Structure to design on (323 residues):
């Protein structure tokens, strides 16, 4: 049993992480400002502390009140599109807020950190599938803020080698609990699967952003990882840094990509509903193809996704959104 802090634990991935940690017997404290998260998503077995990573006194109070074996940092803004419209919001929350957290963590003596990063740090890749050592050239302010935070975490270990970390670069997190009890609920929502499901549920229209990419059907290709598999990757990474120490980087995906049109067609199939597709221009900051090279995470952590076939992803999300 370990004492774990989960920042952003009222959010989509954070809430799944909290449940998984509790289920395996850990004690969990959730720290969230609830601006984008949902109090009802927090497992009642966890302790909840409301606060903001932009408020240093909130962090100091938290870390003076508890002793943690590890911290999992999910408290970040996540929309490529929103970051292009409001880059300062993203720089403040994702860079300044994370720096505040890391500085407070160092002062508290906590040595083990896992950071929720993104494939957006790679930008438009020169090589697909994308390995962890690929050049970093983010195409959006969101990707830039995540890369800057990665560098901050790396620099902490540069000054104190007793600090251990794992940086997990998510590809497309998706899906829901298999029984539909917990799922994705963003505001604003920018992810393709919930937006397509909304269109199916409401007999509405779905906006397909960009149909002129150099792909097999002209739409973006993404690597989709079910949230349950994503959470398992964090647990494996947590054991890695606690047992072996060091600083580590891992892609979290499946190594297989689907186009946006393929996603929409699977939503139609699972829902048995048709809906209107409106083709519009590309969104700023969107890369044409992002597919993970997962050799490293499979070899070093024994990672093996169990729920990330497209049918399971869409079926679980459909159950959640219909609840």
């Amino acid at each position: 049993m370990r004492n774990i802090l989960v920042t952003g634990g009222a959010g989509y991935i954070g809430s799944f992480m909290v449940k998984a940690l509790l289920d395996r017997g850990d004690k969990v404290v959730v720290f969230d400002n609830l601006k984008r998260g949902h109090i009802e998503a927090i497992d009642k077995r966890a302790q909840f502390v409301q606060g903001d990573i932009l408020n240093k006194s909130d962090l100091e109070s938290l870390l003076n009140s508890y002793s943690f074996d590890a911290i999992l940092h999910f408290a970040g803004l996540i929309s490529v599109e929103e970051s292009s419209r409001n880059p300062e919001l993203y720089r403040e929350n994702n860079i300044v807020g994370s720096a505040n957290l890391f500085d407070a963590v160092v002062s508290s003596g906590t040595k083990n950190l896992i950071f929720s990063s993104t494939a957006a740090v790679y930008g438009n890749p020169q090589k697909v599938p994308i390995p962890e050592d690929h050049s970093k050239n983010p195409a959006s302010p969101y990707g830039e803020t995540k890369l800057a935070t990665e560098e901050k975490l790396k620099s902490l270990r540069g000054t104190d080698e007793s600090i251990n970390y794992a940086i997990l670069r998510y590809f497309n997190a998706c899906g829901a609990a298999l029984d539909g009890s917990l799922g994705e609920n963003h505001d604003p929502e920018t992810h393709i699967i919930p937006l397509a499901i909304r269109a199916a549920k409401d007999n509405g229209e779905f906006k397909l952003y960009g149909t002129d990419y150099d792909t097999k059907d002209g739409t973006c290709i993404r690597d989709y990882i079910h949230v349950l598999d994503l959470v398992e990757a964090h647990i494996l990474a947590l054991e890695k840094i606690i047992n072996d120490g060091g600083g580590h980087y891992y892609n979290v995906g499946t190594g297989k990509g689907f186009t946006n049109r393929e996603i929409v067609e699977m939503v139609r199939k699972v829902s048995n509903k048709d809906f209107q597709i409106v083709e519009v221009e590309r969104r700023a900051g969107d890369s044409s193809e992002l597919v993970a090279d997962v050799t490293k995470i499979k070899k070093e952590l024994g990672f093996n996704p169990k729920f990330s076939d497209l049918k399971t992803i869409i079926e679980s999300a459909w159950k959640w959104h219909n609840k």
Q: What stands out?
A: The first helix runs from residue 12 to 23. The chain has a mean pLDDT of 96. DSSP finds ten helices and 14 strands in the chain.
